[in-house]
Each structure stands twice: as C-alpha cells, then as structure tokens.
Amino acid sequence: MSDSTAQKTIFDIFPEIRRIQDEDLKQVVVSAWNEYLEQYGYDAIMALPFSGFAADVTLVEHVGCVAEIAMSMADVFAARMNSKVNKDLLLAAVLLHDLGKAYEYEFVDGAWRKTDIGKKFMHGFWGTYRSLNNGASVDLAHLISTHTPISPVHAQLIEGVILHYADLAHADMICMERGIELYLSK
Q1: Are 136 and 28 in contact (CB under 8 A)?
Q2: What is the pLDDT of residue 39?
Q3: DSSP letter assigned to residue 154
Q4: Measuring CA to CA, how many Å separate 178 from each of 61, 62, 101, 126, 181?
Q5: What is the per-residue pLDDT across 69-82, written as a single tens digit (0 to 9) for each?
Q6: Residue 99 near residue 144 (C-beta atoms within 8 A)
Q7: How deeply is 38 buried, as exposed, middle or buried, from its count of CB atoms within 10 A (0-12, 13-18, 19+)?
Q8: ∠ at Cα 26 (96, 89), nearest 5°?
Q9: Helix (H/G/I), strand (E/B), else coil: 53
Q10: What's phi and psi for 55, nearest 5 deg?
Q11: Where are the beta strands (DSSP E) in the chain?
C-alpha cells in the first residue's frame, strides 16, 4: 500500500459496510475484503474494472451502485408487499457478490488481463470460496454464488432475487449506454 493511502481502510472503500448491524456479517465482509487488500493493496482495488466491456467503471463503483439499487428494492418490497427482507444479509451479499472478480483480473504491461484464477473459475464460485474461508454462513455463500445468470443454481432466498436483479440492472444500464447487448436480452 502506498504512503498516501496507508490510512485507507475497507470502510473508506465500501462505506456501506457501516450500515450492516449484524456484527458477524460485518466481520465476514471486512475480513474477506481485507484479505484481498493485504495481498493486492489499495491502488489495485480502486483501479479494478467492473468488466472487460466497461473498464472505465470500477468494481468499487459497481458494488456501490448495486448496494443502492438493492436497498431501494428491499424498501419498496417491504412497504408495498410486506416482504421480510434481511437487509443485513442482503447488504453483506451485495458487498461480497463480486469479490471473486477482484481475483479475476490483474494489470500487466499496461492492460487488464485474466488471472489464472479468472481463467479457471467463475467469479461467483471464487467469491463464495473466499467468503466461506472468512466465515460466511451457508445463506450468505448461497447469495454470492447464485447472483450471476450463469450460476447453475438459482437464488432460494428473497435477498438473492433482489441481488440478482440489482446487479443486472446496473450491468444493463452500462451496456445500454455503450450500445451493446443487454443481459436482459440474453
């Protein structure tokens, strides 16, 4: 970590963590992301692209947008449908849903490229693996692993449905701005 960012913490990077009331869930999120920070550093996490088709949108920006969308959806479903959404579980899942992507790319010779991990594992799997290693419950791990449309298993919890659509909503808005095929049409 460079001197100018030595005091930055995961709470500076993902301030949404502070909204998680459940201390066990909060600790899983902090531990999983701190593990990445210790290995790769602050500059790496801040530069990580959300996707190969949107290298100008960082993973941190994407996660923040998905958090806002997901929490808004949870509020609407609670108010209009009396849905019982575990907002702490939802927010922890949002914050960890693309943890695997952080291990998927590396910056080499002036360009982003897939790592060996990124070539061999789906990001939902790798994020689940890293999260379980940091104390994630089965429900949290399930939400991380099922958030992507390529997951062979679909969400079994309301928080997973919200995460899935919030994630794709942000991704599709990025696609729409660039004039490329939407996930919605796949």
Answers
A1: yes
A2: 93
A3: -
A4: 17, 16, 21, 28, 9
A5: 999 999 999 999 99
A6: yes
A7: exposed
A8: 65
A9: coil
A10: -65, -15
A11: 49-51, 54-58, 105-108, 111-114
